[in-house]
Design goal:
The complex is a heterodimer of chains A (about 290) and B (about 625). Helices cover about 75% and strands about 0% of the residues of chain A. Chain A is mostly helical and about 290 residues long. In chain A, helix 1 (about 25-45) packs parallel to helix 4, helix 2 (about 60-75) packs antiparallel against helix 4 and helix 4 runs antiparallel to helix 5 (about 120-155). Chain A starts with about 25 loop residues before the first helix and ends with a helix. Chain B is of the alpha+beta class. Among the domains of chain B are: about 1-120, Tumour Suppressor Smad4 (Sandwich), CATH 2.60.200; about 385-500, no CATH class. Chain B is built from 19 helices and 22 strands. In chain B, the strands form 7 sheets. In chain B, strands 2-1-12-11-10-7-8 form a 7-stranded mixed β-sheet, with no helix packed on it. A 5-stranded mixed β-sheet of chain B has the order 4-3-5-6-9, with no helix packed on it. In chain B, strands 13-14 form a two-stranded antiparallel sheet. Chain B is rod-shaped, with a radius of gyration of 55 Å. The chains are: A mainly alpha (about 290), B alpha+beta (about 625). At the A-B interface, helix 5, helix 6, helix 7 and helix 10 of A face helix 1 and helix 2 of B.
Chain lengths: ~290, ~625
């Protein structure tokens, strides 16, 4: 939360500064995964499978077995992550291995397929796997960049404070709007009823920007302000200023909601699709041996 | 009467704050407007929202302004009444106006005014709504639904359809089956029609495709060799290949299955040409593992291939030709019993050429005789029909011995006894007439020599009627006679003139296990040499123009082929794998590779017409 601006502290020799899971142990798992992929590629290039490379050759079975094993192991992170430990098999090491071995699956599974794709269970399993990997890659990006944006947006406020800010502006609007006519108060009422959290997944991801009842009401109110005079104009002006402030507060909440959605959406793909993938993988394996 | 108003609000710690006021009137105006009797400060309330008034004895009338609504005792309405003795609730916007029960006779009506709980506000403070999870179905339900759907559609359904197919075998082949969802790749073109019928090959679940499934349709396919010997001949595998095979066998995949080579689901393609390694693995050093094999080692046509071993008629056992495969480097002689010097016939300046020119009008000869004048290709163009006397030799070599009223009588070819009989009959009838070309018995041959010889024979024949027939018969079967020049004559027993003729035979096919297509060699050019066509192309391989004896076996040897044909990878003009000439599934047809390249259809057998020597047909010659 309020950790921005703190310089990385030099803790001196012997102390461990923060090292992310991507750089864990000087990219150990990146090296391992890259070697694995390279070996698979070289094997693919050297081994002359007739009539053309396919998953049913001995090399295909080998790659398939490695791939399936990797998928199951990668899935186990879901269990493993619930227990944070240190040292060699720390959770960080697991996560690092999860990321890089997961990426190496792109090479291994593609070579396993022998680049033969079709409308069948086999390609479905492949497509699901790729979707899981892609969502995971997106997740790495999201976790690397979005928290900073989230932090920038919140300006040291908590979520509850953001909501409170809107609520308190609402109260002020409520008071200031008392002298307004019934037509004008209907406009203001629309603003008061606006739910900044409204809308489903798409609205959250797309970000509604300055649209919404408050923004629309503000526009109408300004038009009314231009036409009115005297005490009414004074009251309208006061409400408009408040609604303008509310728009800012609402936008902050909306941006927050949007960044949160971008930060969290990948898990809604990554996790359920992993289970869909395991189902497809099971069907793929059973089908291959059923019709051997 | 008066209204006693109690406005109730709550402090932050929940304490009630009550403000009381009194309105001396029979009518109460409710709204946001400061002039209203009950002022409700909320934008949900109109400036003038509703009115309460006493309408009768003990009855309060509550009416909303035009377009406004209120709730009386929970019912949304525009107008309603409340009995004073019972009291009631009126809700205006977020406010609750509670009319307290007023006993009869009491003049003041007490009304409690309280702002209701703002549910919306408390909902807005729910920080959980920032999370995406607040608008998404849970990850677990999505995972369960999608996983179960996939298992149902892609696993359970196809398995169900498999067992369904077993019970409805008749209709099965035509309809859609869910096991198509498992189809890993299109079938080859030849098997495309089986695309909807997985069970045609995948007969039992979890059992790999067996040869019996293939043999159910492919009934005419020959085994490569006896399976036991085949296994014995298999090369000593490398560690990896041995492990592979062991794992395969353990999993029920015996080596040598049809599908080992004929892989399927590789897309709509032709089966690719068999790589050379496939053959060379076993045949490279076959003797090392199969000591009794008669096949020499071969692993590459250019570097390691034995000399051709054509089937040669090496001798005769009585009437039966004896055929044996002899390597060409042993220079086998062909004992066909036919006398035919190719050189004599092909010499462009010789008598044969001269006669050909003379008969050009009748038979279409060129300046000299060429191969094609006698050798007629089979309809498929691959090989040649055996030449026959009447059609080929007979163009020049007449068997005429007599002419009666312009009708020429000929000796019966193929029947020596008939020839003898015909000649005796001729002389018994009163001596020879002057024959068409001087003599009847002698073959008409170009040149003066023949005529002189005929004259001598004629003179002999006339010398004595009784012995003239005998002499004519002897003449025909002796050197210079019609039969003798082409045939091996069997001398008669002493005191008899029953001459015989040795039968003639040629193998229909010299290269039993190889394939050679003459069509592909009609135009020939060896590296660095001129391009040859027509008879020159024939002579480019077959040295007929230099052959003075029909015992010369005019087959080109390995070295001759190697001028153009190299191994699988070669710098020579024609890269040739084993499959270009040999077929794994041995039979007499075209190798499958050529067949696929060229005709895309049925495998054909040879169209050469086999020679029959009369009963019994020699079995060896028909191979």
């Amino acid at each position: 939360m309020a950790t921005r601006g703190i310089e990385r502290t030099d803790l001196g020799d012997g102390s461990v500064s923060h090292e992310g899971f991507l750089r864990h142990r000087n990219y150990r798992w990146l090296k391992i995964a890259a070697s694995l992929s390279l070996i698979a590629l070289v094997g693919y290039a050297l081994i002359d499978v007739q009539p053309r490379p396919n998953g049913g050759s001995w090399y295909g079975y080998l790659l398939g077995t490695i791939g399936a094993g990797l998928i199951l192991w990668l899935t186990a992170l879901g269990v493993r992550k619930r227990a944070m430990t240190r040292r060699k098999w720390s959770l960080k090491a697991w996560t690092s291995a999860h990321v890089y071995l997961g990426l190496s699956l792109i090479v291994i599974a593609t070579l396993h397929s022998g680049f033969q794709f079709g409308w069948n269970i086999h390609t479905l399993a492949y497509a699901l796997m790729m979707a899981v990997i892609l969502s995971g890659t997106y997740g790495i990006w999201a976790y690397a960049f979005l928290p900073a944006r989230l932090s920038d947006n919140r300006s040291e406020m908590t979520g509850a404070q953001m909501i409170d800010a809107v609520a308190s502006i609402d109260k002020q609007i409520q008071i200031s709007a008392q002298p307004l006519s019934d037509e004008d108060s209907a406009i203001v009422l629309g603003s008061l009823g606006e739910d900044p959290f409204g809308g489903g997944l798409y609205r959250r991801l797309a970000g509604s920007g300055s649209r919404g009842a408050n923004a629309a009401g503000l526009k109408l109110l300004r038009r009314r302000l231009a036409q009115s005079q005297g005490a009414e104009a004074l009251a309208l002006d006061q409400v408009a200023v408040l609604m303008q402030r509310k728009a800012g507060a609402l936008n902050r909440i909306r941006r927050h909601v949007r960044i949160r959605a971008m930060l969290e959406i990948w898990l809604f793909v990554h996790v359920p699709l992993t289970f869909a993938l395991i189902a497809a993988l099971s069907a793929h394996i059973v089908s291959v041996f059923f019709y051997w | 009467m008066a209204f006693l108003l109690r406005s109730i609000s709550r402090s932050a710690d929940g304490r009630e704050i009550v403000r009381e006021s009194r309105v001396e009137d029979n009518i109460l105006r409710i709204g946001r407007d400061p002039v209203c009797d009950i002022r409700l400060n909320d934008l949900a309330v109109a400036l003038h929202h509703a009115t309460i008034e006493l309408v009768g004895e003990g009855q309060l009338g509550v009416s909303a302004e035009m377009g406004m609504t209120i709730e009386i005792d929970g019912n949304a309405t525009g107008f309603g009444q409340i009995a004073l003795h019972a009291g009631g609730d009126i809700r205006v916007g977020p406010f609750l106006l509670r009319i307290l029960p007023t006993p009869a006779g009491v003049q003041d009506v007490s009304i409690d005014i309280e702002r209701g709980e703002d549910d919306a506000l408390s909902e807005k403070v729910d920080v959980g709504r920032f999370a995406l999870a607040s608008v998404m179905p849970g990850k677990r339900p999505i995972a369960w639904v999608s996983a179960l759907a996939i298992l149902a559609i892609f696993l359970a359904w196809p398995i169900w359809s498999f067992y369904q197919g077993r019970t409805e075998a008749g209709r099965y082949a035509q309809a859609y089956h869910a096991d198509r969802l498992w189809l890993s790749g299109s079938l080859s073109r030849g098997h495309a029609s089986l695309g909807d019928n997985c069970q045609a090959c995948h007969v039992q679940p979890f059992v790999s495709v067996r040869d019996e499934a293939c043999a159910a349709c492919h009934v005419g396919i020959h085994d490569h060799a006896d399976p036991r010997r085949l296994a014995q001949a298999s090369p000593n595998l490398s560690g990896l290949r041995r492990l592979q095979m062991r794992v395969g066998t353990w999993l029920g995949q015996d080596p040598g299955r049809c599908v080992d080579c004929h892989t399927e689901h590789e897309g709509p393609q032709q089966i690719p040409p068999t790589p050379q390694r496939f053959c060379a693995d076993c045949h490279g050093d076959l003797r090392a593992r199969l000591p009794d094999t008669r096949l020499a080692g071969a692993s590459d046509f250019e570097d390691s291939h034995p000399e051709f071993q054509p089937l040669v008629l090496i001798s005769w056992n009585g009437e039966q030709p004896l055929l044996e495969r002899v390597p060409l480097n042993r220079h086998p002689r062909e004992m066909s019993n036919l006398k035919f010097p190719h050189a004599l016939h092909l010499d462009p300046r010789g008598g044969a050429a001269q006669m050909g020119r003379r008969l050009r009008g009748r038979h279409g000869f060129g300046d000299s005789l060429v191969c094609a004048d006698c050798h007629v290709p089979t309809p498929d163009g691959t090989r040649f029909q055996p030449p026959d006397m009447e059609g080929d030799c007979g163009m020049c070599h007449s068997l005429a011995f007599d002419a009666i009223d312009g009708t020429i009588r000929t000796l019966r070819h193929g029947s020596p006894a008939q020839v003898i009989g015909d000649l005796r009959a001729l002389y018994r009838a009163g001596g020879p007439q002057r024959p068409v070309e001087l003599s009847a018995g002698a073959r008409a041959r170009p040149g003066d020599v023949a005529q002189i010889r005929a004259a001598v024979q004629y003179a002999r024949a006339r010398a004595g009627i009784g012995s003239r027939a005998d002499r004519a018969i002897r003449g025909v079967f002796s050197q210079g006679g019609a039969c003798f020049d082409c045939h091996e004559v069997v001398q008669p027993p002493a005191g008899s003139l029953n001459y015989g003729i040795r039968p003639i035979a040629f193998p229909t096919r010299y290269m039993l296990h190889g394939w050679f297509d003459h069509r592909d060699h009609q135009i020939m050019q060896r590296p660095g040499q001129p391009r040859l066509e027509g008879p020159a192309a024939c002579a480019g391989c077959h040295r007929a123009p230099a052959s003075n004896s029909s015992r010369d076996l005019l087959l080109p040897n390995l070295a001759s082929c190697r001028d153009c044909h190299g191994g699988e990878t070669t710098r020579l003009p024609v890269a040739s794998t084993c499959a270009m000439c040999h077929d794994y599934h041995m039979d007499q047809g075209t190798p499958a590779m050529l067949l696929r390249q060229r005709v895309r259809g049925r495998r054909w057998e040879t169209t050469a017409i086999p020679v029959h020597l009369g009963p019994p047909p020699p079995a060896a010659a028909r191979q």
